[in-house]
């Protein structure tokens, strides 16, 4: 297989992988509200990814990696995940919805790391991972477009449940496509450090790692809060049609592609600390715009472009920093440790906190005080930036080879 053919196949793998997620993520919480789920019930659904993240650390790293070929693991997981998504789509009450969504989460979350494993195993140059991973961003964007036609301007629950049906179809396609991927055999026990997780946790004793861990948790709550709050805000407050809101939100992913292209240059010039500060302040700026510019549709649409800065300048930079700052034999565990914050704990906290905040700031007339709501994540983002400014002191200015970041 030629290098170009391999990269195209891996690009398509990432596109399908993230399209499954992107099809339902923006409208999950508005849909649950349409079904009449309470803020607490919505929070419980949000914990599913946290549960799956913890289980995934041990299942995918300690069992699946040593038992299944990666491409077969992906095929089986996405087949089960697609069936679970259909269950979610046709569940109208909380108990079956929660159960089906939990099953989906348990089989989908580990595939995020497994697809990375497939890519890194077969790419001749790890520095090419960025161009392959951008396929995921493209997939997320493309998953938004079918809903222009599937949803009406004022879509109700019977229409919005199509987000899970579309995600299920993509999941089935990914299951079949996975079997065409290059063979990635299970890992043997040799050379696997069973104490790597303990050693990675031990690095939290270093002030620079501890500060970054705390700020990453704060920013992951803010980041996940954006997905909890933004779609309902766009449709209910700004007045954007329900079948266009996901397209508007996808503009952030377009910006993410462009921002990733300049990340290496920015890191070389600003260094670790200031690049991350700019990234986390992007969240603050976006939420302040949501608070004070909600009457300006053009401004709200334009501010979506800050998503690229929020993601690339903070989260992508964190992954790069961990890869350089952690010892080589615990880097994988270190990445998983920070992923637990981003996909798990931050998601769980945001899933409980922000629906409860919206409920508390909803008046007797049913209108939400979005100005007050968005000042909370804006303040959290500002706090994270201050912590980075005063307490984050990395030993190096930036990455050793910024030209390899793509």
UniProtKB/TrEMBL annotation:
Name this protein carries in UniProt: Nucleoside:H+ symporter
Membrane topology: Multi-pass membrane protein
GO molecular function, a single term: cytidine transmembrane transporter activity
Transmembrane stretches, start-end: 7-24, 44-61, 73-95, 101-123, 135-155, 161-182, 203-226, 246-267, 274-293, 299-322, 334-358, 370-392
InterPro entries reported for this sequence: MFS_dom, MFS_trans_sf, Nuc_H_symport, Pept_cys_AS
SUPFAM superfamilies, per database record: MFS general substrate transporter
Keyword Membrane: yes
Record's GO cellular component terms: plasma membrane
Swiss-Prot/TrEMBL keywords: Cell membrane, Membrane, Transmembrane, Transmembrane helix, Transport
Domain Major facilitator superfamily (MFS) profile: 1-396
Pfam families given in the database record: Nuc_H_symport
Domain of life: Bacteria
Intracellular or extracellular location(s): Cell membrane
């Amino acid at each position: 297989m030629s290098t170009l053919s391999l990269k195209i196949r891996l690009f398509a793998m990432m596109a399908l992988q993230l399209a499954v997620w992107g099809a339902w993520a923006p409208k999950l919480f508005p849909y649950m509200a349409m079904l009449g789920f309470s803020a607490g019930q919505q929070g419980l659904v949000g914990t599913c990814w946290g549960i799956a993240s913890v289980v995934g650390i041990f299942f995918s790293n300690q069992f699946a990696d040593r038992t299944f070929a990666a491409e077969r693991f992906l095929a089986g997981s996405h087949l089960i995940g697609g069936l679970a998504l259909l269950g979610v789509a046709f569940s109208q009450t909380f108990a079956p919805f929660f159960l089906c969504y939990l099953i989906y989460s348990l089989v989908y979350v580990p595939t995020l790391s497994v697809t990375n494993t497939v890519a890194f195993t077969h790419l001749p140059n790890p520095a090419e991972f960025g161009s392959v991973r951008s396929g995921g961003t493209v997939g997320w964007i493309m998953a938004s477009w079918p809903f222009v036609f599937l949803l009406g301007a004022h879509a109700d629950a019977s229409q919005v449940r199509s987000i899970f049906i579309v995600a299920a179809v993509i999941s089935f396609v990914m299951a079949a496509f996975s079997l065409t991927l290059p063979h990635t055999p299970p890992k043997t026990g040799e050379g696997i450090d069973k104490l790597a997780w303990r050693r990675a946790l031990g690095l939290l004793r270093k002030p620079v790692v501890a500060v970054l861990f705390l700020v990453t948790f704060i920013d992951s709550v803010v980041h996940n809060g954006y997905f909890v709050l933004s779609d309902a805000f766009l449709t209910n407050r700004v007045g954007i049609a329900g079948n266009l809101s996901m397209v508007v939100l996808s503009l952030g992913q377009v910006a993410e592609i462009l921002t990733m292209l300049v990340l290496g240059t920015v890191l070389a010039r600003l260094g670790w600390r200031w690049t991350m500060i700019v990234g986390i302040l992007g969240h603050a700026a976006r939420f302040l715009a949501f608070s004070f510019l909600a009457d300006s549709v053009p401004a709200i649409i334009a501010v979506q472009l800050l998503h690229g800065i929020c993601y690339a300048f903070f989260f992508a930079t964190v992954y790069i920093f961990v890869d350089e700052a952690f010892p080589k034999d615990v880097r994988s565990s270190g990445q998983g440790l920070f992923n637990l914050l981003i996909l798990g704990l931050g998601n769980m906290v945001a899933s409980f906190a922000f629906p409860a905040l919206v409920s508390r700031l909803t008046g007797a007339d049913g209108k939400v005080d979005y100005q007050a709501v968005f000042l909370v994540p804006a303040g959290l983002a500002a706090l994270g930036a201050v912590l980075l400014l005063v307490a984050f002191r990395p030993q190096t200015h930036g990455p050793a080879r910024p030209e390899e970041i793509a």
